[in-house]
Amino acid sequence: MKSWVRHCSSPLGVLLLCASTLFAETPHSSPVKNIYVVRFGEQLQSPHIVTYRVVEWAQKRGRWILPDLGYKDNGYAQDQIWFVAGGAQILHRDRFDWTQEFYFTQEAGPESHNKRSLWIWPVLDGRYPHHLSSQAVMFPTIPLDSAQRWGLDVDRARVEWNAKPRWLTGVGYSGGICKQRTWQNRPFVSLKRKTQMGDFDLWAQRVPGGAQLQVRWLLVRDEH
Fold first, then answer.
1. Is 81 exposed, middle or buried (0-12, 13-18, 19+ CB in 10 A)?
2. Chain centre to alpha carbon of residue 200
3. In the chain, % of residues over pLDDT 70
4. CA proximity to 50, closest of 73, 17, 24, 22
5. H-state helical runs in 1-89
6. Are 113 and 133 in contact (CB under 8 A)?
7. By the 8 A CB rule, do 31 and 222 touch?
8. Rounded CA gap, 133 and 100, in Å?
9. How many CB atoms are located within 10 Å of the residue 208 CB?
10. 3-state secondary structure the chain
11. HEC string of 169-200?
12. Do residues 65 and 37 lie in contact, with contact meaning Cβ atoms separated by under 8 Å?
């Protein structure tokens, strides 16, 4: 009993306890999908520095997403974010999906100050006539130690047009307030190509002080 209380006193322990519960309730017949994500950005103006890098792997079992593990840094590992997450598809309709995850993050590196936080991460997908679709992700940063500060970020709010079967063009917005205590605006335009090797997504984005180019890759594979 004391061991169980100790595990539940930490965010990771709570997540692992939820994981065991979800797996116990998930039918063994649910298909398992592996989700791979790679992203990076580069500053367009000289000196063309790498602005960030992300690698992530998740598994989806029926409606549940667990585990979800990943790493993000500022391009040169001075500020690293390691994260573990889990969640589920809350709602699925012909025109709308709502997927909800919870991310526990731990920062490392010389510029990190060992910050820990919780991200409440909803993904809202919409589908409309005339080959239009949308996706929005807006999440708060909830501090789990005194070094972290409250924040709010729009990771992406985008509308895309499926011009051809495998090509999508889009316009979107991202922004937020966290490290800099003033709101940062980062609008973008995008071009996506769907292939058998995954979705390749190219963003040209305005950021404070200049612009950056982002490359995003997403691959979903059934587990055999």
1. buried
2. 16
3. 86
4. 73
5. 2-8, 11-25
6. no
7. yes
8. 19
9. 10
10. CHHHHHHHCCHHHHHHHHHHHHHHHCCCCCCEEEEEEEEEEEECCCCCCEEEEEEEEEEEECCEEEEEEEEEECCCCCCEEEEEEEEEEEEECCCEEEEEEEEEEEEECCCCCCCEEEEEEEEEEEEECCCEEEEEEEEEEEECCCCCCCEEEEEEEEEEEEEECCEEEEEEEEEEECCCCCCEEEEEEEEEEEECCEEEEEEEEEECCEEEEEEEEEEEEECC
11. EEEEEEEEECCCCCCEEEEEEEEEEEECCEEE
12. no
Question: Is it the case that residue 86 has pLDDT exceeding 90?
Answer: yes
- pLDDT (tens digit per residue) in 1-23: 444 444 444 545 545 545 554 45
- Neighbouring residues of 87: CB distance < 8 A, sequence distance ≥ 6: 64, 65, 66, 68, 99, 100, 101, 102, 121
Q: Which amino acid is at 50?
A: V
- What pLDDT score does 42 carry? 95
What's the token pair of residue 114? 């060992």
| 143 φ/ψ sector (left φ>0, alpha ψ -120 to 50, else beta) | beta
Residue 100: count of CB within 10 angstroms of its CB? 16
How many whole angstroms separate alpha carbon 154 and alpha carbon 123?
11
As given in the structure block, the two tokens for residue 34 are 């592996």
Q: Which token pair is 128?
A: 């409309």
**Using alpha carbons only, what angle is made at residue 35 by residues 190 and 171, rounded to the nearest 5 degrees?**
15
State the pLDDT at residue 75. 83
